[in-house]
Amino acid sequence: MNKHKLHTLYVSLLTMVLLIVSFGPAFTAFAEEVNSQPKKVLVMGTSPDFPPYESVDAQNNGEIIGLDIDIAKFILNELGYELKIASTDFSGLIAAMQSGRVDFIMSGMSATEERKQNVDFSDPYYFARNTIVSKEDNIFESIESLNGKIIGAQLGSVQEAISNSIEDAAEVRKLNKVPDLIQELNSNRIDAAIVEDAVAVEMTNANAKLVMNFLPADNNENGYAIAFPKGSPYVAEFNTVIAQMQESGKLDELLLKWFPDADAKSARNDKLIDFSTLQGYVPYIVKGVGVTLLFTLVSAVLGLILGSILSLFKISGIKPLEWFATAYTSIFRGTPLLVQLLLIYYATPQLTGFVIPPLMAAGLAFGLNSAAYLSETIRAGIMAVDKGQREAAIALGIPYRKMMISIIFPQALRNILPALVNECVALIKESSLVSVIGVADLLRRADFVRATTFRSFEALLLVAAIYYVLVLILTSLARMLERRLRRSD
Ligand code: ARG
Question: In this structure, which of 7, 208, 238, 343 has its CB flanked by the most CB atoms within 10 Å?
């Protein structure tokens, strides 16, 4: 191997190390900004799919609102803390608290014995009753009547446990979000859903064909309570304020404010498609474009830099580097991107104690993944540059690095431009995966809107159209660029 080659490799290795080292503190600084407000900030975990307790006010900038939020605000205000809200799906809340992402959970969470093994609960602030929600032409009044039926419930909820205990149920469908249950009911994929009272009232009020029936009040020991990490010092403080709210009537006042009127069935919207249901929500959804683009850009840049370095490794002729790059590509190409994303997001805090923020985890996962694909593309591009170019450069005594940077790479890039554009298109579309870790990108915003409007088609179609337009813009820009490059031949 010649000296120049070694030199280039040395430089790329150094760049890689530098990248990692410089990204590290930048990430940490970013994370600290997110995590360490001037103390006394308590982060509350909630799953905003549960009106009137918690839902996203998509018409109002996506703020999370509800009875639980008002109670939390009141308590924290009394105690002199500042409230910050973090949202995850209900089934992920306790894990989020255990990994330190949130300080307490308020999410209409029932204080069950099972959960008490892992968390400490405050005193209860509300007792809910279960209901069976179903279509009006298919009514169920008791648990027994559900035998042989397909039952829906939210994953990880008490209602899931109840459904599971119905031995003769045809099937229990577990869904991540409560509003998904409505979609499933409307499309007859489930016969009935088990849902708690106030939420069921909201559902049936908003939905033409749904009705609810109360189940007998069972054990009143499972009231809604605030969950804390085991041994948390906050439990006692919070309990004092809860007691005070009960005595002063503050709690009743808030209940009155948030609880829906059971007789107030809103105008029934029977229309198959009705884009007016999106009214007021469009700006909120469109704002997701920024998030989607931002992190498509971050991952593309990260992917391109790492991918170039890896491609140099692959053609370096140095065995360990080649092995490394090959193994890297093989692993990142051989496992699903979604799994990589979840691994980075959940494993990082578990292994290192560093609570990686969602956007950072996403940028990292997508960048690392994209690098694997790009390294192959770039390598192929370099190999495709006519050998004569290299020979001529060497004959002219042009140094290796200069030859690579000013002669080989530009030609390689031009060769692979279409492939690069494909990668960016893929990144834009795949970015929708980040909604699973709670980044408010386009898709997740649509989810929130679906949760409040109880309709799926309109919001999803809008989001699909936005992605499509983004991709169209990107591909036409690329075509222009390509044409210009060809002209300069
Ligand atoms: N009370 C039920 C439970 O603790 C359901 C709570 C669901 N809450 C929510 N925000 N989706 O399991």
Answer: 238
Buried b (16+ CB within 10 A) or exposed e, 388-413: eebeebeeeebebeebbeebbbeebb
If one counts every other C-beta atom within 10 angstroms of the C-beta of residue 64, the result is 18
DSSP code, position 437: G
227 CA distance to ligand 1 centroid (A)?
Answer: 12
Beta bridge partners of 192: 134, 151
Name which residue sits closest to atom 5 of ligand 1, judged by CA: 157
Mean pLDDT by 10 residues, the chain (489 residues): 62 65 54 54 95 89 92 96 93 91 96 94 94 94 93 95 92 91 89 94 85 80 92 95 96 91 62 83 92 91 94 92 96 96 89 87 95 95 90 92 87 89 93 87 89 83 96 92 78
Cα end-to-end distance, the chain, whole Å: 33
Strands 49-50 and 54-57 turn out to be antiparallel
Give the number of other Cβ atoms within 10 Å of residue 265's Cβ.
15
Q: Is 240 left (phi over 0), alpha (psi -120 to 50) or beta?
A: alpha
Q: What are phi and psi of 226, to 5 degrees?
A: -90, 130
Q: Which of 122, 190, 136 is nearest to 159 (CA)?
A: 190
For residue 110 and ligand 1, the question of a CB distance below 6 A is answered with yes
Query: What separation in Å is there between the alpha carbon of 104 and the centre of ligand 1?
Result: 15
Phi and psi at 265, nearest 5°, equal: -55, 120
